[in-house]
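Case 331 in the screening queue. Each case pairs one protein sequence with one candidate compound; here the compound is magnesium ion. For every case the pipeline is the same: read the inputs, emit a complex structure as tokens, and attach any notable structural observations.

Predict complex for case 331.
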Amino acid sequence: MLVNIKTVLTAQEIIDKAFLRASRIEEPYFPKKVDKIKREVMDRISTIEATSAPYLRKLVRQFPTLERLHPPFYRDLISLVFSVDRYKVSLAGIDWCAQRIEELSSHYIRMVKRATDAGEALTLMKGFYGRFASLVRSQQQNLAFLIECRNYIRSLPDIDTECFTAIVAGMPNVGKSSLVSALTRARPRVAPYPFTTQEVHIGFLTRDWVRVQLVDTPPGILDRPMEERNEMERKAVLALRDIDGIVLFLIDHSGTSGYTVEQQEGLYRELSDILGKEVIRVQSKCDLSSERRERICISATTGYGLEELRGLLLERGELFARQRADQAARA
Ligand SMILES: Nc1nc2c(ncn2[C@@H]2O[C@H](COP(=O)(O)OP(=O)(O)OP(=O)(O)O)[C@@H](O)[C@H]2O)c(=O)[nH]1
Ligand SMILES: [Mg+2]
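Case 331 output:
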């Protein structure tokens, strides 16, 4: 999980929860009624504070600051949807609200202590309840905004950005998903990709301590020319530049994908340009055509060429991991 943000309660839920806890408080052990009522009122006020202020502060802490959110891949995707300023303002608002609740609670408890009869204590309690509720309600929009942020952040594909990654690309129907399933045994993790209706499938290749992540790009993400995309889609695609690794570009020469080789070459050139990574060409569905046109040829159906490809990916993954370790040692 990218960042584990717990459920964000709405303003009304926070108020209801605090009032419910407070309503359960009863102090039976006072001989004088006024003392009993004063004690109960003070306990209720501090319970309301204790159920709400720490929750709000924790809420603020668990949202990542966008500047610090690592890696850039996620920062890019998040700032596509949310104004960074709005995000900051919302978090600051909630922090302010927590502080005001704490101040208000101390203030009212002091006044209740000085109260001379039960009626005065109860009036103070009502006053506190009202001010507390309107304080929390003042954060309604900030909370609603953060609920949206949380849902979006949680929906992002869970790409392990520490891991060497092979993005599997190519025109539709060339055999990308078949290759990823053939190479990786475990059931792939699935997540929607922002601004597409499609999901990415993520699988892992492992050997000893080396891991390689395979990201299967579904139709619509990488197989359309950039000029046909809107701004958001373009940026969502460009976020893939931040991921360390290579692109495996599948070319189907068998004629069964429905795309000509020229169309596939066009996409190859485009991706080589925009993704800023080494692109390795792989001829797919080699069981269907005897002609070998690429240096690397595979068939996901018969398993032809898969061991070599697996070896190549793991070798690259190992090299990457060693370079990372060296960098870390030097830093
Ligand atoms: N004969 C043969 N058929 C294959 C091979 N790999 C994939 N296919 C078939 O080609 C079709 C498309 O395969 P997919 O793996 O779904 O292709 P894809 O690139 O993921 O397609 P999209 O997700 O739609 O972009 C399926 O009917 C597969 O069974 C192969 O190595 N040999
Ligand atoms: Mg597919």
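Case 331 observations:
- DSSP finds ten helices and seven strands in the chain.
- The chain has two domains: 11-155, 164-330.
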